[in-house]
Every structure is written in structure tokens, then in C-alpha cells.
Amino acid sequence: MAKHTLAKNIDKHLNETITLKGWVYNIRKSGKIWFLIFRDGTEFIQCVILKNEVSPEVFKLKTTLTQESSITVTGVVQEAPSQKFGYEILVKNIEVIQIAEEYPISLKEHGIEFLLDNRHLWLRSKLPNAILKIRHEVSKASRKFFDERDFTLIDSPMFTPNASEGTTTLFKTKYFDQEAYLTQSGQLYSEAAIMGFNKTYCFGPIFRAEKSKTRRHLTEFWMIEPEMAFYDINDNMELAEEYVSYIIQQVLENRRKELEILKRDVTILEKIKPPFPRITYDEAVKILQKNGRNFKWGDDFGAPDETLITKEFDKPIFIHRWPAETKPFYMKRDKNDDKYVLGMDMIAPEGHGEIIGGSQREDDLDLLLERIKKENLSEKMYNWYIDLRRYGSVPHSGFGLGLERTIGWICGIKHIREAIPWPRTIVRLSP
Ligand code: 4AD
Ligand code: MG
């Protein structure tokens, strides 16, 4: 066990001498006293250096320590009501590990492209730190939610010969002497898995060659995808609203401090409890037309459409029963009108757009074969998937939640590239 204390835990050591290991965030000097703002990735702490409490060498460090120099600090924990964290360190000793070269990210504002080019350093700053801690919380809450409801984690492969979400966004790659794609969704594999496990989820990276440059699209993002045997579309929506409410409540409970750093208005998040409003695709189209938007029935909604539709609601909403042409081959036809499929999207409020896509799946062998033919997909490639309708087919449903879109909404950030540690977009592959 390390003998040093993490900065976030110093409140448990009031009036004790402790050792911290971390980095210099900032230095303020004034005569016989200077202040060092210390960070170790868990908290920012003010350290007070008084001339008569330390050796002359340590006192002189005020002129040689630079931003991001790595240090070991030993001192006494004191109460400091003026400090945000409520505690500070009266320094007894500082050991220098390394004096940092001039750090490119100063404490003033920088342009976003510069910060993204320096993502390897920018991760140390307050805002990325807060966002990625919330991401951690959302991942943890997601696993907890499904683990506690009898779901088994069954991971889907990343290399696959099948398209699931249309052929336009496939990343093709060589796979020895065959061609393969990077996965667009784990869903088709999860549909096989539930026949063995009843309820499953997969949680992993997803790859889509999104050629559009928008604030909602990454080429590599993470999706959590539950799939459930014997669930219809209504059961599916109920689970989705319960799940999203749960992760919001977990973030509110465990990450208040981070939401505060992000200046997030939490009153909106506090209202997120089931049930969520449900409207059909046709009703959504009516909202657009009522608001004077020129929208053609049968099209998919764009970002401005989604923003306009959700304006009337202060919770996420479901849009369900979509025209079959707008959705993938695997969605089940509505038995009341086969123009429609039993798809459902969840759209977040405040203009953050679609965070969930899901559906009841086509469980009829002949109808599925017909869809596969119509979409010119290779029957041979999908043979294993078609098998699932040959051997004990059952009604089933599932959905996928986009992790970064959800984090973007929870954190109230405009562009989802900040919701992932190492963003990949049409224009960015590094660092
Ligand atoms: O709506 P999508 O395409 O649904 C599926 O892939 C289903 N097979 C999931 C399932 O039923 N198991 O994607 C699901 C979610 C979207 O609602 C969105 O939140 C996110 O994934 N998403 C993206 N996030 C970031 N960048 C992109 N390019 C995204 N594309 C989809
Ligand atoms: Mg979708």
C-alpha cells in the first residue's frame, strides 16, 4: 500500500501530518508566504508555505517550481473555510520529482482545436476531469442497473462480416484474406445470446464511418445494449425510461461536485423520473408541421427537427412506430398497419437529440427473409441470424444507449467529443 494520502481524502486526517503526491497546478506568491495549488487527479488543494515552517531550500522553490512539476508534499491538514474544499495543507516539506518544462496549457482560455490536439495534457484540467468522472459514474451505474435485474453481460465481437445498421457507415478492414467490418452494433449477436440467457447486455465500442461533421457524431463511440426475450415494444420503453432515470439519479447522488464544476443546471435532471412521454412518429410530424416546418412524411428527423419536437417536453420522450423505410431490416412490423415498424427512439431534452435507438425485433421467419431480400443483404451471411427464427423464435426487444450522447446531455456540453477520453471524428485520429 502506498504511504501517501489521496487529496480527496484529507478531510479524514484533520490536524495530522500527511504526504501527498501529485502536480503543481498554480503558484501565488506574497513575501513571507506563498501558496501552491496542488492537484493529484482526485482533488485540488491549497498548500500554504510559511518561511518559518520550512527549510530555506523549500521556501526558495517558489521561484523554481513550474506549472505541472511533479512533487511530494508533506504537511499538516488544517480547516480552511475560505477554501472550496474546506481544508488546506500547512507545508512542512516539498520534494521535487521533476521540474516541468513550460506547460502548453496555461490557466487562461484556449481554442478547442488546440485543446483537442493536446488531449494527452488537457485530460489533467478541471472540466475534462469532471466530465470523465461522470462518464465513469454512468458506466458504473449502467452495469449495476442491468446486473441487478438478472441480465448477463455477453459481449459481442468487434470484427464482423455483417452490417446491422445499414451499409453506408461501415468501416471495412482486411481480415487475413477476407473482408470484415468493425461492429456498428452488438445487437444481432445479443439476439442470439438471449435465447441462451434470457436477458443480456453488451457494452463496448462501436465504429461508424460517419462522414458528417456534427456535434453529435463520433466515428468511435460506446454503446450499452440490453436485449430481452419475451419483451414487446412497451416493455422495452418501460425498461429504457427506468434505466435512464436510474443513471441520472446515480450521477446526482454521487457526482454533485462535478456537475457544479460544469455549472450544470441540475433542476432539469432532478425531474427525470418515469414515465416519459410517448408519441408516435406521425404525432411528431404533426408537431413539426404545426410549428411551420416543411417536413416530408417518411424522412428521418434531423437535429433541428428533434430539438423542435422536444421543446414541448421537459423530459426525454419516446418516438415510436416509424415508417418501415426509415429503419433497419430487423424491426418488427406493426400488425395494425405494416407501413410501420415497432421502433422506438428516446430523444433527450435541451437539444441533445437521440440517446437511445431500439425496437421489437422481427420474429417471423418469412417476414424476416422478405426484408433481407428487399434490402439486398446476403442471405448466406445472415444465415445464423435467420436460424434464431427457426429454432424456438420468441417475441423479443432491445435497445442501444449512446454513452457519449447521454453524457453530453447530463453534463450539458455542446459537442460530444468532450464526453470520450480520446475522440475520433471524421477529422480527428490523434492523439
Ligand atoms: O439508433 P442506433 O443506430 O441503434 C442501434 O444501433 C441498435 N442496433 C441498438 C439496439 O437496438 N441494440 O444507435 C443507438 C444509439 C443512438 O441513439 C445514439 O445515442 C448513439 O447510439 N449513436 C451515436 N453516438 C455517437 N456517434 C455516433 N455516430 C452515433 N450513432 C449512434
Ligand atoms: Mg437511431
Global outline: elongated
Name of the top-level CATH class of the largest domain: Alpha Beta
CA-atom Rg in angstroms = 26 Å
Ligands present: 4-amino-1,4-dioxobutan-2-aminium adenosine-5'-monophosphate, magnesium ion
Q: CATH superfamily name of the largest domain?
A: Bira Bifunctional Protein, Domain 2
Mean pLDDT: 96
Walkthrough of the structure:
With about 425 residues, the chain is of the alpha+beta class. It has 2 domains: about 5-100, Nucleic acid-binding proteins (OB fold (Dihydrolipoamide Acetyltransferase, E2P), Beta Barrel); about 120-420, BirA Bifunctional Protein, domain 2 (2-Layer Sandwich), CATH 3.30.930.10. It is built from 13 helices and 16 strands. The strands form 3 sheets. An 8-stranded mixed sheet has the order 6-10-11-16-15-14-13-12, sandwiched between helices. A hairpin with a 4-residue loop joins β2 and β3. The longest helix has 22 residues, at about 125-145. About 35% of the residues are buried.
List keywords for this structure.
431 residues; alpha+beta; OB fold (Dihydrolipoamide Acetyltransferase, E2P); 2 domains; 8-stranded mixed β-sheet; 5-stranded mixed beta barrel; elongated; binds 4-amino-1,4-dioxobutan-2-aminium adenosine-5'-monophosphate; binds magnesium ion
